[in-house]
Amino acid sequence: MRYVIVGGGVAGATAAQAIRRLDADGEVHCFAAEAYPYYFRPRLWELIAGKAKEEDVFFRPVEWYARQGIQLHLAHKVTQLWPDLHEFEIEGETRERYDRLLLATGGRPFVPPFSGSDLPRVTTLRTLDDAHNLIEISKKAERFVVIGGGLLGLETAFSLLQRGVQVTVAEVFPRLLPRQLDQPGAQLLQATLEKMGFNFMLGAETQEITLSGDILNIQMRDGRILEGEAVLVSAGIRSNVDLARQAGLTVNRGVVVDNHLQTSAKDIYAAGDAAEYESTVYGIIPAASEQANAAAANMVNPGSVEYSGTLANTRLKVVGVQLASLGEAVVEDPQCDILRLINEETGKYTRLTLRDGRVIGAILLGDTSPFLPIKRLIDRGVDVTKVRGELLKEDFDLKEFSQS
Ligand SMILES: Cc1cc2nc3c(=O)[nH]c(=O)nc-3n(C[C@H](O)[C@H](O)[C@H](O)COP(=O)(O)OP(=O)(O)OC[C@H]3O[C@@H](n4cnc5c(N)ncnc54)[C@H](O)[C@@H]3O)c2cc1C
Predict the structure, then answer these.
(1) Phi, psi at 366, each rounded to 5°
(2) Which alpha helices (H) appear in 162-284, and where do they start and end?
(3) Which of 23, 96, 188, 393 is 20–30 Å from 14 (CA)?
(4) Are 169 and 199 in contact (CB under 8 A)?
(5) What is the Rg, in whole angstroms, of the alpha carbon atoms belonging to the chain?
(6) Ligand 1 lined by 147 (C-beta under 6 Å)
(7) Which residues, in sequence order, are bridge partners of residue 380?
(8) Each residue's pLDDT tens digit, 228-274
(9) Of the candidates 365, 363, 362, which has an alpha carbon nearest to the alpha carbon of residue 348?
(10) Is-contact 311 326, C-beta < 8 A?
């Protein structure tokens, strides 16, 4: 059996390893457009902040792949796919054959269609090369504007602050982290981050960027203007679907997969930021690795493992700020019962969202220690009706209750 994996990120590397574990004899090929073996993208922030060395971002050396019998082809981009023929083309080379193929092509930063995004020192962060570029720019720039106050934008802003650069985050929503935090949580987080040196401009939609001399002017739709020597755009991601689309596979936001991670084409699977499962492109590492493991199992033994979605959970890593957001964290449905505990002095905020007596989402700001017990309650769909009044009390043993 000849397994071919397109993409060498977390989904591709996880799948390669899982296939090898399940099929000791099959040929496993991993084609990676980047020139590096799998590295941990969250570490790029530490690299930018000067807190990690280049070698710290890598997971496994190239020799590891060879020892596993995985043939890793770095700087080899797959440019075409013929599902009916079970063939694919590598850029500048000949066609090759596959028996089962995984699309683990990931995603890329989305840049909204404002003019000026192609100006010098207007950049994005996805890859190690992008991180190198950002480090070079920050050696000369004193003021950075980060467009996008989501998780990635805030984390990148923090790593730039640690380099001694001034940073202003411009967010189109009137609050930070709109997907992870509700209004009270966002206000509390903003106050904490401002104390750490962040500047914010909220409700600010970038209209265009212009260059005068060395200064970039970021013009907002409502007339406000920010100035800086550099701009980082962090406005979400788009799945890399070109290969799938050209091959005639069903593509929506991502490559559409079923609960076996199979695409609309026989013997072609997809996982990670490239894949769309039940209208969701997760864009997070836990989903990429769960999908990759399930896809790998099904590539070896078709139909053997069902995937049923990943609980969305995120943690902010900004030093000194603990934030975790789980499941349906920000939902404001009148059918839901929302429990809140807020302490403005300590910057602590806990919110639980209950539906039909069960926890379906949570926000933990300032103290993420209840993360695992709450995740367990959500995963198991535990009925918490009897302890509803106790759940947020400090002396309530959530850990024990979640295990009972
Ligand atoms: C700076 C940063 C920090 C992050 N931090 C977190 C975090 O803390 N927690 C979290 O859950 N998520 C985080 N994410 C998101 C997370 O990294 C992604 O969800 C994850 O990388 C998805 O893995 P993937 O393998 O699907 O895609 P990718 O990591 O994007 O890998 C896909 C690879 O496929 C390659 N490729 C694409 N097309 C082709 C082709 N045609 N031929 C060959 N190769 C191809 C690409 O070059 C890329 O290397 C972060 C992302 C960034 C950028």
Answers:
(1) 90, -25
(2) 183-195, 242-246
(3) 96
(4) yes
(5) 23
(6) no
(7) none
(8) 999 999 999 999 999 999 999 999 999 999 999 999 999 999 999 99
(9) 365
(10) yes
* CB-based burial label for 111 (10 Å; 0-12, 13-18, 19+): middle
Q: How many residues does the chain have?
A: 404
**In the beta sheet, which residues pair with residue 237?**
109
Structure tokens at 10: 């977390």
| Alpha helices in 233-385, H assignment, sequence order | 242-246, 285-300, 371-380
157 ligand 1 Cβ < 6 A: no
For the chain, report the end-to-end CA distance as a whole number of angstroms.
Answer: 46
If one counts every other C-beta atom within 10 angstroms of the C-beta of residue 362, the result is: 25
How far does the centroid of ligand 1 lie from the alpha carbon of residue 226, in Å? 30
Q: What are the angstrom distances between the C-alpha of 10 and each of 58, 157, 239, 279, 322?
A: 11, 24, 15, 21, 25
Confidence of residue 344 (pLDDT cuts 50, 70, 90): confident
Q: Which structure tokens are listed for 110?
A: 């989305």
Q: Note the pTM of the prediction, 2 decimals.
A: 0.91
Distance 132 CA to ligand 1 centre (A): 17
Tell me, using a 6 A CB cutoff, whether residue 315 lines ligand 1: no
Which residues lie below 8 Å from residue 63, measured CB to CB, with a gap of 6+?
none
